[in-house]
Specification:
This protein is α/β, with parallel strands linked by helices. Mean pLDDT is 91; it is low at 513-519. This is Ribosomal RNA large subunit methyltransferase K/L.
Length: 734
Amino acid sequence: MTSKPRLSTYWVTCAVGLETLLQEELQGLGIQDIEVLPGRLVFKGQLEDAYRICMWSRLASRVLMPIHVHEIEFSHDARDVAEELYEGAISFDWSLIFAPQSTFAIRLHVERDIKVNTQFATLRAKDGVVDSFMEAVGKRPSIDTKQPEITMFILAGKKEHTYCLDLSGDSLHKRGYRRFMTDAPIKENLAAAILQKAKINDIQPDIILDPMCGSGTFIIESLMILTDRAPGLVRRFGFNGWNGHDNELWMNIKAEAAERHQTALTQPLPKFYAFDADWEAIKATKQNIIAAGFESILDQIQIEERTLADWPNFQAEGKKSFIVTNPPYGERLGDKASNRAFYLGLSALLQKHFPNQTAAVIAAQIEQADVLAFNETQTLRLMNGKLPIYTRVGKIKPASVVRPFLENWQPQQFEAIEGAEDFTNRLQKNMQTLKKWAVKDGVYCLRLYDADLPDFNVAVDLYGDRLHVQEYAPPKTIDPEKAKKRFNLALASIRAVTGLGRDAIFIKTRARQEGKTQYAKQSTASKRFIVQEGKAKILVNLTDYLDTGLFLDHRQMRLRIAAEAKGKHFLNLYSYTSTASLHAALGGAASTTSVDLSNTYLNWSKENFVLNGLTVDHADEQHQFFASDCFEWLKEGHEQYDLIFIDPPTFSNSKKFYGTFDVQRDHVSLLKRAMNRLTTEGTLYFSNNYRGFEMDEEIEAMFDVKEISNETIGPDFKRNQKIHRAWKITHHPV
């Protein structure tokens, strides 16, 4: 008659938030009757169970075996926890657990509300272990806090102290492959948990993509899961120096794991894509994949330096795809608005390339995850070290096809608005005239009406499917009540002609601005929307400022820059929200440099860039932004540019710049400095909105100057030919 195998109690620790997933994993290893506690699972099992967890658990942090419990007797309120830990340690014969020749270390965890100096308490617990050895065998083991042969875990509690042998030794998240690090990497066991939550095995993907791969953790953990590679196959464990270690049992488990991995390697694997905008991350990923033992299948992994805006054609149609990534933007961009813009851009890319496929994306704040266009969503909240992270898992919604508003617009049927008949007729006629052009050229943002009639002195601009209506302040000679009545008639007419409701119409009054008021904030409503122009997605603000962030009259100039920018170094002076720089970048510019005095506009610029998947946060930035006076910036630098765009204000006296800028007075000095920074074969585009502007003869004599105003004014501004003037300036041929 054989006796039943001896059962022991084991603790399996994990990051808070992983308890349920870890329970499922342990059940998959054949372990039942599991007690779930915060950050810890407890079960009774055989040594083989503990060994299998050490070998196979992708989610656990440590496997602990409680050895000794020291109960506390309360004789008075004032406790000396450090001495309690010493008494508990010396009361057990530790020579039964490991040899005095072994090195050891102690990890102390203290329950809440227990006041103790943990460093001193750990030292006293160590003294107790050493004194126990001296009493038992007359020899003492040595301390090694970096690579001990035995690790002891002590939980100091209110009623008892539990002394455990740490069978895992080092934390189980350390698989041994992470030789090269990048900033803020995700822990290996958290990456595995996210893959498990997304059910990567059930998906059986043909394509796996991490577009911001960092040091390659998601790619490697995916490889390990799909090739049935045990995470503990090549690392050392804390039970190696334990007197109770069953080496034969462990070697059998290890041999079985190696055989399973070799068998799985014979099966087809998906195509892996690992991209990052940082070349150092690309190098780290490749080296870590090799260190993980996957060098033989490197041909299955496309590892490249790419931004989100530079994705290749994945040819994913008809294939199952899985996208998983840990974007670095949570800490680097800083403000929530920039982070939200980035996640909106990432979401749009996923919708375009991988509709109806599965994705798992990490966010630093839940608000970031909420903008991802996913169906069937699940959210996993975890702690990556001391930082909370949110992982949104779901099916990517297909991108909805957005067409220019005028494509579906038809003349509306409505009752005549008394007193505004001429205005409604003119607005409707303008829209009918512009419709064919807007639909053919894919124009989403345009001017529909610009004070065409003297009695209706307003500008009506279309931004996507919203209207921005600016009332030009009437002269003081006009009765305010009469002006107000006419403006209300105009608004009623605009709603009737366009068919848009009140919530889609945003109103501002545009008076002549002077001094510091020209860029002042008008509101705090912050109605920000994304609009399309050419290849670019652009954030516009229809409430807070007099201008929206997108000068519509410069559309043709921006598209011209996009067409000419490929491979060139582009400089944008007085860049405002840097939409011209954005077009240059999306057109393939080798680099873009944007200079503006306003940090507000430069932050807005960065949001525009990250919205389009362009990187703005690396030390060797391809796209740079400088908060500086343009005159000073030109004077101090020496870099040369192939393409320059300058669109200065008519007049400026910003508090950051001592003195004033007047475009007529100062354009000669500005252009001469800028031309010093233009390459011999380069092109400078200069424009401004000052109606009385005249180009100085000195500039025309020094350079090849050609006015191109007509070429840069779109059909929607043909009624107002003086909206701006523009020139193309180059060096004379040598």
